[in-house]
Amino acid sequence: MKLTYLLPLLAAQAMAQAQVQDVQSVLQATDKFRMTAENLQVDTQINVLNADGTPDKERRYTVFAQAKRQSLVVMQSPAEKGQKVLMLSDDFWLLMPGSQRPLRITPMQKLLGDASTGDIATMSWADDYAGKLVGEEPCEVAAKQTCLHLSLNATRKGVTYQRIELWVGKTRFEPVRADLYVLSDKLAKQATFVMDKPAAPTMVLEMVLADQVSNHKTTHVRYLSRKVRQVPPEWLNPMFLVRNPALD
Q: Which member of 52, 110, 186, 219 has the lowest number of beta carbons within 10 Å of its beta carbon?
């Protein structure tokens, strides 16, 4: 009798483990549409629109997204020139020109509009989240397309969002849209992703963030260019960056 009860339990556990592995494989494929190589230089432009659609602000950033969850964000607009954000795993620092010390910040700290440091510095999900497949659902942005709905929970403390409801293409697993929840499980933002070739996508060109909490502004994060680049190790050292060196 014990074996009769044990077999269904073991089968359920095996199915659950297989689903977890499948979700991680999907996330790894999804990540490649944003992080097209292990080490990248990504020129990024952020445009913020007010709730009525009128322009608010615009900023430019150079993001050096590196392997092992390391990123350096260099601010390029005149209003922020010389400022940098460094991400090393769960640790974030803001480096200000003229300051003698790097300042600890959180991944939720705003850069511009509703784009946080984590939104700009992090371009992958597979290393930070685990979850389950909810099922197949129509994609809102393309009624004829069927998406896989993934429910993701953070596995690290230094992530921007504690939970993500993510919809990806059923065939290629490209990101389509996401509901982004903070630690209190409040829906903070809704993201949609603009692909280079809707019929046969290869990379994300733009992420659009719609505020769901307060100002209801829309923030467009445009990836203007990507190129493979591994930065020197000292660029990922906050004590080196605090000297405000020229980064060429």
A: 52
